[in-house]
């Protein structure tokens, strides 16, 4: 009987327990969801969305598992639209007893497919400051306790953005796990982390998805919020680092006392700092020489104050030889120091005391110092040496689809501050030296035929850059250019418009040498801006041509002969003013068809459909040639086909242009006046 009773009441108890384990989640599910949303809305300046709450007593029995699905915390003003935190799944475990009592003593946590976003605006406010201050004492409530034994983060993306300084950092694909007894005030936490790091500042990307890993045993003092590095090993790309010291959370900041260094000192460590998309595979690269990398951070980060810090990188007489390339980079020397001795961010200094290398007999060196980083960055830069562009691709794995060759020589020095660049006070800029390029050859999709620069010479001075020589050729075209560039510093450092004045001469200029490669089309072959020639139907047409938006320059041009399809223009001269994606033509003249044409007006590619508005003055042109070979004239005055002799004509015409900047005949409008002078 006793055995039967045991089985009877045991069976009844099991059935009731199983029934409770199934039923309890449905009783508590909505309560927990409402409590979470109510707590957020009451205490935080943010909107919470939560798709579902699931409670299971089976998966981790005798613990309960709560799963939050599609959790998102979205900021209100002044960061409206920022998603501070979001997660596809958040799983936490706690005891069934605590769950039923309304206590939240977390025993474990897992986060999957999540994102966190920290954003500082230009006023210095952060989107994470979302707590609503309360003037009344907080009511006593059961606190959330952490007795976590282990936790796991799978596929988290952390983004940091600072509008002041345009700083962007993203740590993506974060996989992190930790094991430790958080029920103890002092514990050792064993962690494993891997992720991809991107860092950019002011439109310059310094790291692009560089892989990082960290295996660390952290000594944690929960009472004092102190985290000490014990056994640890970090890897940035392929560079190994070890850390010593601690980080401690303060009431209003953090305290740092950290040092780091490389456990190994081969020069291959330096290549490991370069993202693999630029350095390519480095497993079989042969290197000689050592590299030293070390640094520290010490002090409190409170308010505007940062810890003092330093970083040193040093290498001397190193070499790099890629296995599939014929040449070796030799005599590599690097002496780089970054430091801050005051804790004031603006006092950070970057000193590249030396960078040097040699390929064959070509030696190049540079040095640079940057100070006054935030208020008004000051740059002191010098570079000197020779670079054979053809040798670069034979010593370093540069991705080049087309041929690149030439000898670049530089001997320049400059001192400048960004405010002088911004305000165009170029008299405050010290610049001197020369740069030359010879025997340059480039083959790329921009040109149908190889583009050769036989000689380019530039002289640097504070107010402008002098272009003393530019002799180039492509196909059957020769170009000779000289002049001044007035805003190179603003163009390079601040993405401003490039200004200049140039003189262009050419013995022979073949327009088709500059056309984009043809693409399949059913449109007819076309010709020059206002003198479209008649041609037969063709299966190809050129790609769209655009006037560069970054140019603001004046070009005085002379050409002995200009060829475009079957038109031969002789003694071409005039002025072109390029600005705001428009070319203004002033007194452009050419001899053609026994007479000459004078042209003035403009061509604009600023809108989606290019336009033109020009005045043509045709003097003593042979009627039969002009009105049969220039399609636009043929369409305007078809009767001219049967007229013989010469004509003086004034035409004011405007309309739309095709992608190759030839007139769209059915959009043309204007006035025409003509007089026969010989019949």
Number of helices: 9
Helix content: 10-25%
Largest sheet: 31 strands, mixed
Q: Assign the structural class, choosing from mainly alpha, mainly beta, alpha/beta, alpha+beta, or little secondary structure.
A: mainly beta
Name the quaternary structure.
Answer: single chain
**Unreliable stretches covering 5 or more consecutive residues:** 1-6, 16-24, 518-542
Give the mean pLDDT: 81
Q: What's the overall geometry? A: elongated
Count of distinct strands:
33
In whole angstroms, the N-to-C terminal distance is: 136 Å
Radius of gyration: 36 Å
- Strand proportion, as a percent range, falls in over 45%
Structure description:
Mean pLDDT is 81; it is low at 1-6, 16-24 and 518-542. The chain is mainly beta and 679 residues long. The radius of gyration is 36 Å and the shape is elongated. It contains 9 helices and 33 strands. The longest helix is centred in the N-terminal third of the chain and has 42 residues, at 2-43. The strands form 2 sheets. It has a 31-stranded mixed sheet that branches.
